Amino acid sequence: MLAFPDAQIIDVTGPLEVFGRAARLLADERGWRLPAYTVEIAAAKAGPLTTSCGIRLIADRSIAQVRGPIDTLLVAGGRGTTAALGDRALIDWLRNIVRRTRRLCSVCTGAFLLAEAGLLDGLSATTHWRQCERLAAQYPAVSVENDPIFVRAGKVFTSAGVTAGIDLALALVEEDHGREVALAVARELVMFLRRPGGQSQFSVQLSAQVADREPLRELQRWMADHLGADLSVEALARRAAMSPRNFARVFAREVGMTPGEFVEKSRVEAARRRLEESAEGVDAIASECGFGTRESMRRAFLRTLHVPPSAYRSRFHQKLSA
């Protein structure tokens, strides 16, 4: 892991913990004598560096001390990225080290360092959603994707903000040692949900605004747990003790989308999770998630994800990688 002063600590420690856990699991449960992974931090100078939260980490060695081939090089992001971009020795080192590296990865705004070194030219890449426009503006040779959790372009991987680096690391472990090992590591880390690379950086609950009014906030929470119920404007308005017209107007103003849009996006999100994680049939999933029919769910998937449910399942079912 390449780090620097004011790096985001989870960008550094999150992915490294995944690799460390995988190595321990393979040693403890499968009897591996040699570690599957050894992890270390490199920086412009060896020794302590202070991350953006104030906690200090120790760089095992300086970049000048890195010798031999590297299996996987990850580049952290964080507030310190701006200063790191001005370190020409660091950028030159990245540009040269890629020839000795099997996989090159960035976490969050670490993508800017790869782009500055010219390593993303002509490739698709992503970064933290707040920085996608800036990345595209500063490096027009990079095809920036705003939404995915991580993007693979050959041997180069770029991931979105902070915890997306953990999702990327799990995908790399799966690539190396199979899905069973990756899932075991995810369970050890109490990961709430496996997230394939092509998934959105946002859930509906995160991307929608939280309503100011408590009745609407409570209604948003209730809707997420009752997607199979009648979620028409009229039914929701009754639950909020408002007229349908006033409810629709206030909901759209406070949540940033109409009630119908919020319901459809929530149902699509629930359905795609079931498509990823279960062997349930499409008809059953459509019914459980409130679509009513298979065709209604298909139309909603095409509007929201631009692929039908069958294609989504084919791509993402039981997968961690992009």
Write up this protein:
The chain is of the alpha/beta class and 322 residues long. The protein folds into 2 domains: 9-188, Rossmann fold (3-Layer(aba) Sandwich); 204-316, Homeodomain-like (Arc Repressor Mutant, subunit A), CATH 1.10.10. The chain is 48% helix and 11% strand. It has 15 helices and 10 strands. It has helices at residues 9-30, 81-85, 88-97, 110-116, 132-138, 164-177, 179-188, 204-207, 214-225, 233-239, 244-255, 259-277, 282-288, 294-304, 309-316; strands spanning 42-43, 47-50, 56-59, 61-62, 70-75, 101-106, 124-125, 143-144, 150-153, 156-159. The strands form 4 sheets. Strands 5-6-10-9 form a 4-stranded mixed β-sheet, with helices on both faces. A two-stranded parallel sheet has the order 1-4. A hairpin with a 5-residue loop joins strand 2 (47-50) and strand 3 (56-59). Helix 1 packs across helix 7 (179-188). The longest helix is centred in the first third of the chain and has 22 residues, at 9-30. It is globular. The chain starts with 8 loop residues before the first helix and ends in a 6-residue tail after the last helix.
Characteristic terms for this protein:
48% helix, Arc Repressor Mutant, subunit A, alpha/beta, two-stranded parallel ribbon, 322 residues, Rossmann fold, 2 domains
Q: Which residues form runs of ≥5 with pLDDT under 50?
A: none
CATH superfamily of the largest domain: Class I glutamine amidotransferase (GATase) domain
Averaging pLDDT over every residue, what do you get? Answer: 90
Order of helices and strands: HEEEEEHHEHEHEEEHHHHHHHHHH
The CATH architecture of the largest domain: 3-Layer(aba) Sandwich
Structural class: alpha/beta
Number of helices: 15
Shape: globular
- In the sheet with the most strands, the strands line up as 5-6-10-9
Distance, first to last CA? 21 Å
Cα-atom radius of gyration: 22 Å
Q: Please give the CATH class of the largest domain.
A: Alpha Beta
The percent of residues in helical segments reads: 40-55%
The total beta strand count reads 10
DSSP strand content: 5-15%
Q: How many domains is the backbone divided into?
A: 2
CATH topology of the largest domain: Rossmann fold
Q: Give the biggest beta sheet.
A: 4 strands, mixed
